[in-house]
Design goal:
- This protein has about 270 residues and is mainly alpha-helical.
- It has a single domain, classed as Orthogonal Bundle (MetI-like fold).
- Helix content is about 80%, strand content about 0%.
- The protein has helices spanning about 1-30, 45-55, 55-90, 90-105, 110-125, 130-155, 160-165, 170-200, 205-210, 215-225, 230-274.
- Helix 1 (about 1-30) packs across helix 11 (about 230-274), helix 3 (about 55-90) packs antiparallel against helix 8 (about 170-200) and helix 7 crosses helix 8 (about 170-200).
- The longest helix is centred in the last third of the chain and has 45 residues, at about 230-274.
- The protein is globular.
Length: about 270
């Protein structure tokens, strides 16, 4: 009976994996198709990638997407890190209240957040543009940075900054030379997650962008119903970028932890020998 249950679980697991990933593999596969057909593979070709890089609207969409993601990542990482450090030094009641507020953008549906931003800009009579989209991206990226940094701050020895200041460091020097290096993995993870969230965002971008400003997601949505194989090529590149970022987020910390564990083991062995 246990073997049958285990077999069913394995089959169900692979069915779910196929359901989620086969459409992505399908798009990437047909992005190398020689013809326009999305059902018949006639031969390997890079013509649609060439067409993509020759298309001015696509290049503009890529430019807006990368610029928005980079700016949003940089600002949200700095603001989120400083906020997390401030929360770690605050009273428990205030910290919990900020945590609840911080979780709202992540728990709310994207459509609610998008409409909220749109109404906010409209009420202030701010014309939507590239910069309103950037501000919206910064706002919804900050909670993810805080969420990544806070666990590292909890594991940090609270006496280390005080010890650094006792040895002559200013509060700013203690922050930069003691706290930041200790929480650096959390900062990098938060930055990569923020970049990923901003890079492939669609709903919030659609409601907060201005005329003539189109990112990759909006461009794909506007052309997806047409037989346009360059969309497959663009989607394949988008999948590659997001996959790379997610692999870095998940694999790099594991490699770092293994190296640190090996270094600690080697140090303990040397001490035991001597």
């Amino acid at each position: 009976m246990e073997k049958k249950t285990g077999l069913f679980e394995k089959i169900w697991f692979w069915v779910i994996i196929a359901f989620f990933y086969l459409p992505i593999v399908y798009v990437v596969f047909f992005s190398f198709n020689k013809s326009k057909s999305l059902t018949n593979f006639t031969g390997f070709s890079l013509r649609w990638y060439q067409r993509m890089f020759e298309s001015r609207p696509i290049l503009e969409a890529i430019g807006y997407t990368v610029a928005c993601a980079v700016i949003a990542t940089a600002v949200s990482t700095v603001v989120g890190t400083i906020t997390a450090i401030g929360m770690s030094k605050s009273r428990k009641l205030l910290r919990e209240a900020i945590n609840q507020v911080n979780n709202l953008p992540m728990l709310n549906p994207d459509i609610v957040t998008a409409i909220g931003f749109m109404l906010f800009f409209t009420s202030l009579r701010i014309k939507t543009s590239f910069w309103t989209m950037v501000l919206a991206h910064i706002a919804f990226c900050i909670p993810y940075v805080i969420l990544s940094v806070m666990p590292k701050l909890r594991s940090l020895d609270p006496n280390m900054p005080e010890a650094a200041m006792d040895l002559g460091c200013t509060p700013l020097q203690a922050l930069w030379k003691v706290i930041v290096p200790q929480i650096k993995p959390g900062i990098l993870s938060g930055a990569l997650v923020a970049f990923s969230m901003s890079f492939d965002d669609f709903v919030i971008s659609l409601f907060t962008t201005g005329p003539g400003v189109t990112n990759i997601s909006i461009y794909v949505y506007g052309n997806v119903k047409r037989v346009n194989p360059t969309i497959n090529a663009l989607s394949a590149i988008l999948v590659f970028v997001i996959t790379t970022v997610l692999v870095i987020v998940n694999v790099v910390p594991m490699i770092r932890e293994r190296r640190e564990a090996k270094h600690v083991s080697a140090s303990e062995l040397e001490k035991a020998v001597h």
